[in-house]
Structure of Phasin domain-containing protein:
Amino acid sequence: MVHVNAYADLARFVEQAAAAQALAWRGMERVADLQLQALEGHARAATGLMADAMQAQDADALRAVMARGGELQREGVERAATAAGDIMGVAVQTATSLGALVGQPARA
């Protein structure tokens, strides 16, 4: 009789471990997606700026491109800060979900 309870406890543990792993993977997947989106935004901005600089016909056009570079830098910092906040939100949500999963009473 003791063995049946031990197997049932082990089965519940394995079930909870699998659920916890799935939660953690979903959180990591969302974080990676947010990081990739931020990186793509930075790459698009830098590529556009370089293309404009290469097409500048004179010093005034190049100055305008460089002025726009400062603005793009500020936008990049804003994107990074937003991504960091979103990543923190995903981390908190994942940790909360994991905590709720661990706190679940064992099912009979």
